[in-house]
Amino acid sequence: MIEVVDARRWTTVQDRGRPGLERFGIPPGGAADWFAAAVANRIVGNREDAALLECTAAGPTLRFDTDAVIAVTGGHAAGGTSWQQVRMASGSSLAVGAIAPGLRTYIAIRGGIDVPLVLGSRSFCQRGTFGGGFGRPLQRGDRLAVARLGEHQPLAAPWPESHRLPVRGPWEVRIIAGPQQDAFVEDALQRLTATACRVTPEIDRMGLRLATPGLRLQPREIVTVPMTAGAIQVTPSGGLIVLHVDHQSTGGYPAIATVINADLPLLAQARPGDTVRFRSVDHAEATRAHRRLTGWLELDP
Questions:
Q1: 188: closest CA among 259, 261, 240?
Q2: Judging by DSSP bridges, how do beta strands 275-280 and 240-243 pair with one another?
Q3: What are phi and psi of 162, to 5 degrees?
Q4: N or C: which end of the chain has fewer CB within 10 A?
Q5: Which residues contact 113 (CB under 8 A, 6 or more apart)?
Q6: Which of 272, 251, 122, 277 is nearest to 204 (CA)?
Q7: Nearest Cα to Cα of residue 246 among 112, 125, 152
Q8: What is the Cα–Cα distance from 21 to 26, expressed in whole angstroms?
Q9: Is the distance from CB of 144 to CB of 282 less than 8 angstroms?
């Protein structure tokens, strides 16, 4: 068992989420920085779908009742060693502390966090307040069981820096045009990619609101349509909302573009005040970018 001594601001149990349930109003969820989470599980030898902890802004203090092998990845954590296996002795504690640069840190424990499956996943869903073992972020005094989902030996060497994504802005984020291009004037996408956007404090797992000084994209009205993670919605006032993993399944604001899957981890690490610039790419480049990251996960560092 693992005891939560101090949960800090927002620590939740996550895995790969619930893809394919948007038609029932259920967001895909899962780790916001899917790549950092996958690396953490890879380091400790877990299966890809093993549940782990996602920490936002600051990480928890955990006490281990038995020997364990862990890995901490993602945003830089003030306490502890990151991007490599760490052996925790029975009775020892891990204090993650403040996270910066980056916004989200992941803690994988060999075997995985053992909480009940809800709709096929152990992930906490922010919109539905279910899953994650408690239907809420972790609190002081919670106890977490460790499963037996380890399939491989932990990695002996640290995860190479050349195979990590940046956790500090400014950010260049690649997008694919659409799907409601006809709701905007002809040069709207060009104006978007030529503008530096600022991340506002309105950030959660559902999305990010961006301030766009000097940019006003006036969309035409559309009927409510399905939405996906990465969709860049434009509000009637011209503001931008980028949907993330716990997004609503439908929306009435038109989407001028969609962030590619390989760059969603970058937005998961963006902090208020960071600058985001969008770059338009085609489907072929988006596919290559995703294959690059999944290829890293298959390597033996």
A1: 240
A2: unpaired
A3: -65, -15
A4: N
A5: 13, 50, 51, 52, 53, 122, 133, 144, 145, 146, 147
A6: 272
A7: 125
A8: 5
A9: no
Report yes or no: 191 and 219 within 8 Å, Cβ to Cβ: no
| Residue partners of 210: CB distance under 8 A and separation at least 6 | 197, 198, 199, 200, 239, 240, 241, 242, 276
**How many Cα atoms sit within 13 Å of 293 on the Cβ side?**
22
Q: Is the model's pLDDT at 301 over the cut of 70?
A: no
User: Token pair 């075997």 is at which residue?
Assistant: 111
Distance CA 113, CA 85 (A): 16
Give the integer Cα–Cα distance in Å for 87 and 83. 13
Averaged pLDDT of the chain:
93
Model's pTM, two decimal places?
0.95
167's CB contacts (< 8 A; 6+ apart) are 74, 75, 76, 101, 102, 269
Sequence-ordered strand ranges (E) for the chain? 2-6, 10-14, 52-56, 58-64, 68-74, 85-88, 93-98, 104-109, 113-114, 143-146, 171-177, 197-204, 207-211, 225-226, 231-234, 240-243, 250-251, 255-259, 275-280
Q: Is 263 helix (H, G, I), strand (E, B) or coil?
A: helix
In tens, the pLDDT along 240-290 reads 999 999 998 888 889 999 999 999 999 999 999 999 999 999 999 999 999
Q: Is the pLDDT of residue 27 over 80?
A: yes
Counting every residue written for the chain, the total comes to 301
For strands 275-280 and 68-74, give the pairing.
unpaired
Reply yes or no on whether the pLDDT at 239 is more than 70: yes
- Sorted by sequence, the CB contacts under 8 Å of residue 249 that are 6+ apart come out as 22, 23, 24, 25, 26, 27, 226, 227
Q: Read off φ and ψ for residue 296, nearest 5 degrees.
A: -60, -40
Q: Output DSSP code: residue 54.
A: E
| Residues 10 and 16: beta-carbon distance below 8 Å | no
